Amino acid sequence: MRGWGRSLGGVVLLGACACGGTPPDEGVDAACAVLLPGDLVFTEYLNDPVGTDTGQEYVELHNPTRAAVDLHGLTLYAARVDGSQERAYLFTGPVPLAAGSYLVLGDVREGPLPAHVDHAYGEALGALGNTGGKLGVRCGERVVDEVQLTAPAKSGVARVYDGQLVPDSAGNDDPERWCDGSGAEDAAPGRGSPGVANAPCDSAEPSSPATEDAGVVESCVPVGATTARPVVWPRPGDLVITELMANPRGDDTLGEWVEVLASAPVDLNGLTVGSDSAGTKVEGRVCRSLAAGAHAVLARREDAVLNGGLPPPVATFGVDLRNSGGVVMVRAGDVLVDAAVYGLAEEGVATQVSAPLADAKRNDSQEAWCRATEVYGTRGNLGTPGRANRVCSGGADGGVPDAGVPDGGRPDAGAPDAGSVDAGTPANGCIDRSTGKTRAPRAPDGGSLVLTELMADPSAVADATGEWVEVLALRDVDLNGVTLSNEGGSSTVLTATLCLSLKAGGRAILARSEDVSVNGGLPAVLGTFSFNLANSAGNRMLRLSVDGRLLDAVTWTTAAVPGVSSQVDPSRSDSTRNDLAGSFCPAPTGARYGLGDRGTPGVENRPCVP
Fold it and tell me: What is the model's pLDDT at position 186?
């Protein structure tokens, strides 16, 4: 990485380009047109330095390919989680990055570059979000990689992608694969490893294996005591989401909050609070305990001056709550304790569950929720944070059908996996992840879904947990109701409460397991299937269908190569040309994911070499 020079230079993109408008000119696009999604990967960032952020922040890019790449023509950008307030920086000259190397880009405004920075983007990005946001690099409108920013445990600690995993642009979408950097407390510029490979994330702090009958994990010190005791995690239904504020008056990143109600004595230590795509773990050595019947507020900020006059929050979280609607979730390790779907957020008004319906079963129904009416705090916001809600009028009377959000709350919920068969699927459709409302699934038709890659014989993990299939959408569709089957007639129907949505150009991974600890380090899995993919030669087939109508099918006769996926050439990524002889080939040696098997799950395939 060192040796090719370090530089200041580039262009600050404001106005149309900074707001996601027109791409750079044709000459600049041509300069980076050879770069595909995944050819550059974010592996580290320092978004909350000690003291002032200005001049100290940095981001690290890795080249996972077998050839040198050049950043000329690319745009580095940062924005809020919803994509608003984007700021960007254009690479106007050559910035080479050798194969397998790392490049550190720094917020250096003046003077010489620090030893750990290779290239400065100056003031172009402004300050990165300390508790959340979006960081990406693109060529024109083609996104090469993008990650969600998360908060470190304290200032001066970089966030790093798990060093035990091969860096890939789909895997780094998962916030659980990032951790705080290691190193000396007084290390400059902070605890991290800019410019070199990351260390493995601390294996001494894995997700706690909470069980259905216990939930006792980790340890904490009760208030006023000196001796630690085991943490008591809530079981599904023991902790209920009862109110949330997604669109407060003023800055959302300061005033958002979520209220929970304990139906049994529990500790919040170690729980993860967030959305369906990101979460923040509740940290702390002192027990954050709730008695049965007690409310707790989880907020973006603790300071009442900043958060709009909330009662003292029990903990803070760093995930943006979408104003357009979404899902709030509380997890204990891999166990979903409760989830609540909400719709379009009204400015300055919390949405709350009707007091008689405040349990993990009945809060699944959209009819159980209503707008708050009481004023709290200093900004005229409406809500009852930390105390009992009002009784909603109208339909929130407990007699409505259950919308079926898979929150683990007593017998109504199916498996909380958003992928395999879920008993809670609404009869008339699925719940849209963006709006929080039930709608009819967008059924795919012939040619709208394409089988583009499959891993039949993983080497890093067992076949029973590591096999997977990739599906490309050529238009906006939902996979709810789609059937994946093989040559032997074994099949799995994809069913879920939430809409299994794919936008045009998006790729879904269907896998034997969604558990990253056993599936070889796959990026996010949209659905799971239960049958095996044959390793030996023979007449093999994979088939996608819906309601008996064929969507796509691929056949092959050769044996699987251990640890290597079979992928379609990107020039043949449609349901007709992927049937042609020679359309599929082994993934190249430079394309690796997770624990090191070859493949490009979730990102564009590499061209087949004749």
Answer: 54
